[in-house]
C-alpha cells in the first residue's frame, strides 16, 4: 500500500545504542496545565531557547524526528535541545549516530506494564498504551524532566511528531513534524468531507477525484480514514483512526507550523494549494525534506552501521544490476506472497539484496537461503543501511511497500521503485505489480527484469536521476529545502517571540514553498 502506513515498525537495528546517557527518571508534575500558547515573561525570552523534540516511538518515526533534532541542534548551537522518546526507541538509535553537544535524550513513559510485557503485546496495543500514557500526563512529565535535566531552563517550544498532538496542550508553541506523504496529511485534514462523500465503507478502488490534491488516491489507500468512536479499540484500524482524528482536530487549531518531509516543488500545484487551503493562516506548512538529508546527517554509513556487509557485497556487482528488497512489518506480504516473491527473485536471474526480519526467514521456500548463499547471487539480511544501499551504484531497482520514507530515499538515490502506485502515477519512476491479484513469482520476475534491463527501466532510471538532481538542488546553498530549513530554525528558536503573531511575519518570496504563498489566494 503506497505510503499509507504511518506506523511501519522497523526491526531492532544492529549496532543500536544501549549506552545512551538518559536524563533523570520521570518526576511527578502536580502543577496544573498552562493554557496553550501562553506568552512567556520577557526575562524568559532573553534566555537561550530550550526546544523539546518529541518522537512518536514506533517504526521510522524515531529516526525521522532524530534527524530533525540533530539538524536543529547543529544549526542553533546556542540553543538547548531535548529529544523525547521511550527508552526502547532511544536504544534503537545507532550507536555511531552523531549527537551534537547541545542535544540530550529524555525518556518518556511507554505505558502500562513492564517493558518485557509491552514488547509481547501486539503493535496496536503498544501504540494504545503509549498514547494513553502520553495523553494522561506522560508528555508533561517528560517536559518537566527535560527542564530539570538542563538546570531549570523551561521548554520554550515543542517540535513534535504530528501524531503526538497532545503537545498542543503543553503550554508552549507547538511546531509539528509530518513524517509521511503530505498527501496523507491532506486526506486526514479533509476527513469529514471525504467521509461524507464516500461513506465509511466506500468502494476500495474508488478514486477521490472530487477532492483537490487527492485525485490519484483510492479509498483503499487510506486505511485509517473510517469513522471510529472514542471507545473503540482492539485493532490497528481503530487505534490509528482515533490518533489521526485527534491530529486532524488539534493540528489546525494549535500548531504554529508543520514541517513536511518533501522538497519544495515535488508535488503538483493543486496538492500544495490544497494543503495550504486545509490549514489556517496561523499554521505554516513548510517543506524541509527529505529529512534524512538534513544538515548533520552522516555522508556515509560507517562499518558499525553495516554489520552484515551489505555495501561490501554490493561492490561485487555491476552498476544498476541489483534489486534491493525491503518491506515493513505492517505492510509485509502474507506468507504465501512472501514465498512467491522469493521464487520470483530467483526466476528473474538478477542479483538481489533482501532486508527481511529473521523471524520471517522460516516462511521462505525450502532451500532458498542455501541456494542464494551458494550462488552468491542473493544476500538475505535481517537489517540493511537502507539509505546507503539506495545510494550505491550497483542498485538498480527497489522492491518495497512504498512507505513515504522509502520513497524519499529512493528519490535521493535515483533508484526506480517497484510496487509503488503513487510513484508511478505522480513521478513516473516506478511500476506496480498486478494490483487486483496476489503477488506471483511470474509477475515479480517480469517486473524485476523490466526495471533492471528493459526499455521501461531505462525511462524510469532517467526519471529517477532527474528527481535525484532536484533533491540535490533543493539542498544546495540557495535550494528550496535549505532556505525553508533556515526559516524553520528561526520559527523554532524564536517561537516565544513570534507566538500569536506568526501570520504577520514577513516571509520573503521564495523562502517557503508554494503552499505557504497560495494560502490567502485560496481563501477568496
From TrEMBL:
Keyword presence, Transferase: yes
Name this protein carries in UniProt: Glycosyltransferase
PANTHER family assigned to the protein according to its UniProt record, in alphabetical order: GLYCOSYLTRANSFERASE (PTHR48049)
The entry's keywords: Transferase
Gene Ontology MF term list: UDP-glucosyltransferase activity
Amino acid at each position: 500500500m503506497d505510503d499509507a502506513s504511518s506506523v511501519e515498525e522497523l526491526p531492532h537495528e544492529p549496532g543500536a545504542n544501549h549506552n545512551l546517557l538518559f536524563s533523570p527518571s520521570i518526576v511527578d508534575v502536580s502543577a496544573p496545565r498552562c493554557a496553550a500558547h501562553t506568552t512567556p515573561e520577557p526575562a524568559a525570552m532573553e534566555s537561550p531557547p530550550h526546544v523539546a523534540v518529541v518522537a512518536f516511538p514506533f517504526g521510522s518515526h524515531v529516526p525521522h524526528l532524530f534527524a530533525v533534532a540533530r539538524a536543529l541542534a547543529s544549526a542553533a548551537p546556542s540553543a538547548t535541545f531535548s529529544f523525547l522518546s521511550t527508552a526502547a526507541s532511544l536504544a534503537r538509535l545507532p550507536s555511531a549516530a552523531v549527537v551534537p553537544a547541545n542535544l540530550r535524550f529524555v525518556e518518556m513513559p511507554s505505558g502500562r506494564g513492564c517493558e518485557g510485557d509491552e514488547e509481547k503485546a501486539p503493535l496496536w496495543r503498544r501504540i494504545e498504551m503509549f498514547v494513553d500514557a502520553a495523553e494522561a500526563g506522560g508528555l508533561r512529565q517528560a517536559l518537566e524532566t527535560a527542564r530539570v535535566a538542563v538546570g531549570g531552563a523551561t521548554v520554550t517550544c515543542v517540535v513534535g511528531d504530528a501524531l503526538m498532538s497532545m503537545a498542543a496542550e503543553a503550554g508552549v508553541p507547538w511546531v509539528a513534524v509530518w513524517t509521511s506523504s503530505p498527501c496523507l496529511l491532506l486526506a486526514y485534514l479533509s476527513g469529514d468531507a471525504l467521509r461524507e462523500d464516500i461513506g465509511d465503507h466506500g468502494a476500495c478502488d474508488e478514486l477521490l477525484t472530487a477532492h483537490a490534491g487527492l485525485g490519484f488516491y483510492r479509498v483503499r489507500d487510506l486505511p485509517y480514514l473510517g469513522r471510529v468512536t472514542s471507545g473503540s479499540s482492539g485493532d490497528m484500524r481503530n487505534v490509528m483512526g482515533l490518533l489521526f482524528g485527534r491530529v486532524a482536530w488539534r493540528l489546525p487549531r494549535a500548531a504554529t507550523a508543520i514541517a513536511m518531509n518533501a522538497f519544495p516543488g515535488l508535488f503538483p500545484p493543486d496538492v500544495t494549494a490544497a494543503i495550504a487551503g486545509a490549514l489556517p493562516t496561523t499554521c505554516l506548512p513548510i517543506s524541509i525534506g527529505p529529512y534524512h538529508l538534513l544538515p548533520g546527517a552522516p555522508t556515509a554509513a560507517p562499518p558499525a552501521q553495516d554489520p552484515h556487509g551489505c555495501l561490501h557485497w554490493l561492490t561485487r556487482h555491476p552498476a544498476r544490476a541489483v534489486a534491493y528488497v525491503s518491506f515493513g512489518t505492517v505492510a509485509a506480504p502474507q506468507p504465501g506472497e512472501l514465498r512467491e516473491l522469493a521464487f520470483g527473485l530467483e526466476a528473474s536471474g538478477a542479483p538481489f539484496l533482501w532486508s527481511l526480519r529473521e523471524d520471517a526467514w522460516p516462511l521462505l521456500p525450502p532451500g532458498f537461503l542455501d541456494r542464494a548463499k551458494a550462488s552468491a547471487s542473493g544476500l538475505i539480511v535481517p537489517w540493511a543501511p537502507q539509505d546507503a544501499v539506495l545510494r550505491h551504484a550497483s542498485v538498480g531497482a527497489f522492491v518495497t511497500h512504498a512507505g513515504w520514507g522509502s520513497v524519499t530515499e529512493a528519490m535521493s538515490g535515483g533508484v526506480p521503485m517497484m510496487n509503488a502506485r503513487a510513484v508511478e502515477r505522480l513521478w513516473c519512476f516506478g511500476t506496480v505489480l498486478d494490483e487486483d491479484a496476489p503477488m506471483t513469482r511470474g509477475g515479480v520476475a517480469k517486473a524485476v527484469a523490466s526495471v533492471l534491463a528493459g526499455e521501461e527501466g531505462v525511462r524510469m532510471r532517467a526519471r529517477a536521476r532527474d528527481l535525484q538532481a532536484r533533491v540535490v538542488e533543493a539542498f544546495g546553498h540557495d535550494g528550496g529545502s535549505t532556505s525553508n530549513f533556515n526559516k524553520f530554525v528561526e520559527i523554532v528558536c524564536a517561537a516565544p517571540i513570534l507566538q500569536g503573531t506568526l501570520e504577520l511575519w514577513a516571509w520573503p518570496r521564495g523562502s517557503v514553498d508554494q503552499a505557504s504563498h497560495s494560502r490567502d489566494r485560496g481563501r477568496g
